[in-house]
Design goal:
The protein has 283 residues and is mainly alpha-helical. The protein is 68% helix and 0% strand. The protein contains 9 helices and no strands. The N and C termini lie far apart (44 Å). The mean pLDDT is 87.
Length: 283
């Protein structure tokens, strides 16, 4: 191998790469739900027999980044991850409108997570897969927090990527990955229908089924009990905290995707150790 495979070099490269990817994830988190909304509006207009109104191009790449307040075009020097926000002191250079600190937070989180994958798995296929998994989990988490949506354009490609990665000996064998995808989907699908039949209400969205199916495709069916347990515990604690401390209404839905994502990340890094500890305590 080259010097790139040396741990210090690889982790440093991963940190820089992760921060840059985090900058792109900010675009995905902001624009993807709006792209979906546009598509739904166009489909509804077509079904009603209406003329679809002309709209300018809107994708992950177009139009170029700009301030939503004054439409100031963000140049290259103003778009350097982390540094630009610090140099600009968290304000638009055109109109001085505050820039949300979540942008550098996502960049820093993605950088640290990517470097953590490089350090934990070392140079190779597993590290590359873990990085892709983490990037998708971060994007899905923030989109679900904002909109209570888990886009198919993230969950479904992630599911197939997990199956393909495991054909090459990524994290588990292919049989465990296929069973994990099926069990992940069916487990939450069953909970959804039992809750709906018992209460007449929907307890979660279909995106949660697909996200857990994707996690199962990456980590295998044996990790699913741990993922569900961890996500349920974290979700319960956060939900009670929101109700008690933030006076979050009981009837206001709380997205479950972020807790599934957190459980999946913990299981990817420390799943076997936690499972062994759990079994030792049980017996």
């Amino acid at each position: 191998m080259t010097e790139f495979s040396q741990p210090a070099v690889f982790v440093s490269f991963a940190l820089v790469l992760g921060v840059c990817v985090g900058s792109f994830l900010n675009v995905v988190i902001h624009r993807l739900p709006r792209m979906m909304e546009r598509e739904w509006q166009e489909q509804c207009a077509e079904l009603r027999g209406e003329t679809v109104p002309e709209q300018g191009p809107y994708s992950l790449l177009r139009p170029s980044s700009h301030c939503p307040k004054c439409n100031h075009r963000i140049g290259v020097l103003e778009n350097i991850p982390l540094l630009s926000w610090l140099v600009l002191r968290g304000r638009c250079s055109g109109c001085k409108t505050p820039i949300s600190p979540r942008y550098p937070l996502v960049e820093a989180l993605t950088g640290i997570a990517t470097a953590g994958a490089a350090l934990h798995f070392g140079f190779g296929l597993a590290a590359a897969g873990a990085m892709l998994f983490l990037w998708c989990m971060i994007a899905a988490t923030f989109i679900d927090f904002d909109t209570q949506l888990l886009p198919d354009s993230i969950t479904l490609p992630l599911l197939w990527a997990g199956l393909l990665l495991n054909t090459a000996g990524g994290f588990v064998d292919l049989k465990a990955a296929v069973l994990g995808a099926a069990a992940g989907y069916l487990s939450l699908w069953s909970v959804y229908w039992m809750f709906k039949l018992a209460t007449g209400k929907e307890g979660m969205g279909y995106g949660d089924f697909k996200l857990l199916a994707a996690i199962g495709a990456w980590l295998g069916w044996t990790m699913l009990p741990l993922v569900i347990l961890l996500s349920s515990l974290v979700g319960a604690v956060v939900g009670v905290g929101l109700i008690v401390l933030a006076r979050h209404g009981r009837n206001v839905p709380i997205p479950f995707g972020p807790y599934l994502a957190a459980g999946g990340v913990v299981a990817m890094f420390w799943g076997p150790q936690l499972t062994r500890s759990w079994l030792n305590l049980a017996y």
